[in-house]
């Protein structure tokens, strides 16, 4: 049975805003969850990510957050492009249009380019979190699936449904990234909450045994932080990060700005940049091909 959203957002269909009148052409599905779906759309020569919300209250809360972040002098500026309703079978479906971000998830990037990139990526993720925290918010649902990596380890956060004003209860989370799951603190929107999740992101990205899937099957009384410390000892890449990760997991780093400075000092000691291979750069191949064409044309004219 075809659902309304499969019809409304099939590739090639057009989404027309009821109030603003902007028209977007759907290219493909990017993702779907309990609260909504995200599709890649095009308007003219520009691509955007369009999110349609199933739950009006949750969707509006996310829009309110994005509006505030889009007005800051940070990398989130102008992130939110449009907000409107789509009419489907006489029902109004709220949607938001955001900047489209290309990239791959952290695990895929490390698998393709090498684990040493974790040092660069971690620093850039902490810079994004610092911007968010200084704007008065905590990301809340920080996980590998909610970030994209591209280029020289550049990191962008996606899916702002869990972003929560500081001091309030975390409104959206994923269990293994949650310090409450590990009985390591409360589910309150503090910078240290995101830093705990950050540490889990690093460990999960470096874990080659998929151990976190097994942790979901454990009972609370058999689950403790020693399991995470054991992962650091057993994994050479994680062991290099252990001094930072232990502090983040134990709530000993108060702010993301402090975390960023600690991370930078760790990278400096490891002298990571000298070990990093350059990620593939397509423009170099294009320039090389162009130079061959010019050289060939020169030979043809003057030979």
From TrEMBL:
Q: Name one GO molecular function term.
A: protein serine/threonine kinase activity
**PROSITE patterns named among the record's database cross-references:** PROTEIN_KINASE_ATP (PS00107), PROTEIN_KINASE_DOM (PS50011)
**What InterPro entries does the record point to?**
Kinase-like_dom_sf (IPR011009), Prot_kinase_dom (IPR000719), Protein_kinase_ATP_BS (IPR017441)
Q: Which residues form the Protein kinase domain?
A: 24-284
Binding of ATP occurs at 51
Coiled coil stretches, renumbered: none
Q: Which organism is it from?
A: Paenibacillus athensensis
Quote the PANTHER family the UniProt record gives: OVARIAN-SPECIFIC SERINE/THREONINE-PROTEIN KINASE LOK-RELATED (PTHR44167), SERINE_THREONINE-PROTEIN KINASE CHK2 (PTHR44167:SF24)
Transmembrane regions: 283-302
Which Gene3D superfamilies has this protein been placed in? Transferase(Phosphotransferase) domain 1
**Pfam families with a match to the protein in the record:** Pkinase
Key words, A-Z: ATP-binding, Kinase, Membrane, Nucleotide-binding, Serine/threonine-protein kinase, Transferase, Transmembrane, Transmembrane helix
Q: What is this protein called?
A: Serine/threonine protein kinase
């Amino acid at each position: 049975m075809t659902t309304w959203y499969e019809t409304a957002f099939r590739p090639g269909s057009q989404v027309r805003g009821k109030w603003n009148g902007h028209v977007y052409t759907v290219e493909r599905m990017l993702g779907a969850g309990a609260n909504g779906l995200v599709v890649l759309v095009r308007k003219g020569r520009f691509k955007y990510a369009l999110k349609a919300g199933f739950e009006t209250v949750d969707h509006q809360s996310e829009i309110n957050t994005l509006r505030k972040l889009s007005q800051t002098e940070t990398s989130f500026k102008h992130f939110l492009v449009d907000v409107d309703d789509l009419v489907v079978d006489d029902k109004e479906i709220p949607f938001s249009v955001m900047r489209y971000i290309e990239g791959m998830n952290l695990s895929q990037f490390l698998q393709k380019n090498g684990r040493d990139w974790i040092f660069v990526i971690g620093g850039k993720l902490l810079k994004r979190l610092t911007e968010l925290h200084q704007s008065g918010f905590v990301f809340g649902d920080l996980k590998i699936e909610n970030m994209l990596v591209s280029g020289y380890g550049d990191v962008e956060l996606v899916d702002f449904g869990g972003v929560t004003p500081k001091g309030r209860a975390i409104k959206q989370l994923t269990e293994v990234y949650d310090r409450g799951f590990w009985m390591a603190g409360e589910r309150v929107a503090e910078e240290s909450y995101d830093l705990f999740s950050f540490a889990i992101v690093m460990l999960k990205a470096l874990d080659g045994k998929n151990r976190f899937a097994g942790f979901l099957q454990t009972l609370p009384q058999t689950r403790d932080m020693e399991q995470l410390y054991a992962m650091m000892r057993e994994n050479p890449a994680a062991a290099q990060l252990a001094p930072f990760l232990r502090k983040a997991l134990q709530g000993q780093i108060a702010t993301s700005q402090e975390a960023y400075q600690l991370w930078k000092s760790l990278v400096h000691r490891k002298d990571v940049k000298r070990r990093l291979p350059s990620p593939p750069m397509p423009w170099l191949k294009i320039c090389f091909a162009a130079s061959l064409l010019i050289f060939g044309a020169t030979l043809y004219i003057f030979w």
